[in-house]
Write a structure and sequence with these properties.
Oligomer: heterodimer
Bound molecules: adenosine-5'-triphosphate, magnesium ion
Number of helices of chain A: 12
Shape of chain A: elongated
Number of strands of chain B: 10
Number of domains of chain A: 2
Structural class of chain B: alpha/beta
Shape of chain B: globular
Radius of gyration of chain B: 18 Å
Radius of gyration of chain A: 31 Å
Helix content of chain B: 25-40%
Structural class of chain A: alpha+beta
Chain lengths: ~425, ~260
Amino acid sequence: MNPSDIFSLAYDALVDRKVRTVLTVMMVVLGASLVVVIDGLSAGQAAFLAQQLDSLATNIMYISSGQHSYHGDASSSASLIINSAVVNKIRGLPDVTDVVPEYSGGVTIDSYGNIQHVSVTGMDPTKITDMLPNVQYVEGSTLPAASDRTAVVVGDSIANPPGSTTPFVTVGQTLTLTYTYADSSGKQEQEQRSFIVDAVMKPSGNQRIDNGLIINTDAANQLLHKSGRYDSLMVQTTDDTAISAVQQELTNLYGKSMGIMVPAAFIAVRQQTAEGNAMFVEMIGLIALIVGAVGIVTTLYNSVNERVREIGTMKAIGAQNSSIMALFLVEAAMIGILGASTGLGIGVLGGYAMTSFPSQPAGHGGPGGFGPATQSISSFPPIFLPLDLAKVWLLSVALALMAGIFPAWKASRLSPMVALRRE
Amino acid sequence: MRLVGLLNRDKSGMRHISGTMVSESVRTESKESSTTALTVSNLSKIYDSTAGRVIALDKINFSVKKGEFVSIVGPSGSGKSTLLNMIGALDRPTMGNVYINGIDIFSLDDSMIATMRNNLIGFIFQSFNLINRTTVLKNVKLPGTISGMSTGKSHERAMKILEALGIGDKANQKPVNLSGGQQQRVAIARALVNNPTIVLADEPTGNLDTKTGEDVFDMLKTLSHKYRRTIIMVTHNPELAESTDRSISIRDGRIEKDVTN
Ligand SMILES: Nc1ncnc2c1ncn2[C@@H]1O[C@H](COP(=O)(O)OP(=O)(O)OP(=O)(O)O)[C@@H](O)[C@H]1O
Ligand SMILES: [Mg+2]
């Protein structure tokens, strides 16, 4: 039998049982598209985290008062009041090369009548590169001096809000920051200050920086009514190997009243978690594919049983066992190819569709907060590598073919005598 | 007539099982066997099952000449179908041999037997056994397709035979839309497409009314007499049996009578 004849016979048989064929194909589509979506999303997330990790200095850690501790037991112990005495004490620790105090809070900004709620950090702007060694600024930016109380540095996502074609903030303009607070009697009060945009950052890969403003330390103290109590400290050590020793020292000094976070380690842990999650969800996709394969087994097995007489007749008029086997394997392959190809298409489209509605980025991550701890996998643009897609396609088709083996073998073993069976 | 020309001309187009095998068997053929299409020798078939042992065929011996139209008759359960199935190599016998064109068919392996069935034997079934989802033409072409005949050639042959059988206009219809008699003619066309040495028919008129059955029978008779096809037909109809060249009566797996009409 010529291959083209086998294909034509297989095609006829599949078309003859349209509904069943379509349902079986859909099972494969489901599995393949699931695997594609998960692959694409986790590749996107992995790339994002890798980029973040890349942009971070490895020799810094953050210290916050226990209130904002990452250990989550804020209420259980007294929180540390971080003032200049604490800053000086930590500066004196061995292996510590610098300590940058930070204030943080939320303000609204007003740019030509448009209002946005953003987070603001009060710190020495010249120390930004301590944390983000590779950070870059847009044309026309000048990094303000540590003492410049009227300058503001703007993150990329604020200057260029996602989805908007016109920039919200440009270099040189005046930006008014409004801080709303309740006074001792509980009355709402507002504190306002104007700043000049000295610099706009290019995308840094760091959500907290991209979604925030940076102003002078003293200016923030006044604007945010901090009374000299810092929210967090950025501690720089001689190198990354000194991190754990300093961390130990700090724990000895302040115990649980203080939260310590090592951003690089934090991201690395997230990376591992993400990989683990992706593997778990990928397993589910694989299981869906296997379920699809079982569907093919069932469909073809039923088909063989229904076509016993036809198979017998074909054998009676001289079809080889191998031709009958090939016929059913081609049917399985056709289901697999159709399902895998459709599944790939749906998976890729689905991946983009899922990420085109951005979930609220954790940009206002509170004082001392670092990065998008709560971001879901679908917050990152998916990445579909042709090689990955080809692998999923081949896997789906291979599973479909494997699913065809048993029914095909059974069909090929039928005796031509069944052609004579009375109905 | 058209059909004569068709069947003779196509001798050259017939695909043989295997060049060496056929030529070897031709070399060992005796003078007598060159006019013999089929020889059944000491053929026995015993079915062993939990229900017991059935001797369906008990040392059957006979020969059929080329171009002969033989009917096989006998009561139900006498072994007629079993005999026909052995001749067509649908099943292997317990003992004995079947020679077609001098070839001991059960000495072949399963794959060669399949090729032999495709090349040398045309089957006509009581219930037609057509593939209903596809066209009449594709059904008729199928044995050609299986033998690897080119699409053009199998198409040409199928159309000629369908026209000779008077159903050329049905080529693109589905078999289910045809009458029983027309369906059986499609089955006959399919049996002839590879120009077989022997046509085997198990109660080909069994599912047809008397008149249609006679038409189909006449068609087989024409095939045999005018075009010298060798035909072996199982039938329950004594009148039809008498109209064939020779009737073999089977009873309890043995030949009871063998009459030339
Ligand atoms: N597969 C089988 N297993 C067991 N016994 C069988 C089998 N096939 C046939 N037989 C038995 O062999 C005997 C001959 O059966 P066969 O079908 O050849 O009869 P038949 O002459 O064709 O009958 P009918 O005229 O009813 O078609 C019967 O006794 C039958 O029961
Ligand atoms: Mg019978």
